[in-house]
Amino acid sequence: MIRMDEVNKIRKKFFVKGEPRGGIAKVCRRSWDTVNRIVNMDREELEKRGKRPQRQKTVMTDNVIKAINDLLEYEAAAGIKKKQRYTAYQIYKELSEQGVYLGSRRRMEEVVSKLRAERNQVKQPTFLPLEFPLGSALQVDHGEVEVEIDGNRVKGYLFVASVPGQVLRYCQAFPTKASEAWGEFHERAFHFFGGSFSRLIYDNDSVLVKKVMGKERKQTTFSISLEEHYGFESHFCNVRAGNEKGAVENGVGYCRRRFFTGLPTFKSWDSLNELLSSCCLKDIQQGTHYKTKEKLSELFASLEGKLMPLPPSKSWCRWVECRVDKCQLVTVGHHQYSVPEKFVGSKVRVALTYSKVEIEKDGEKISIHKRKYGKEDSLALDHYLDQLQRKPGAFSYAKASKQATFDPNLTKMRDRLSDKYGKNKANRQFVDLLLLQRRWSQKEVIRGVQKALDLGAIDVSAVENILCQQNLSSRTDREELQKLMPIQPAQWDFNLSSYKELCQEVAL
Question: By CB neighbour count within 10 A (0-12 exposed, 13-18 middle, 19+ buried), where does 139 fall?
Answer without folding.
Answer: buried
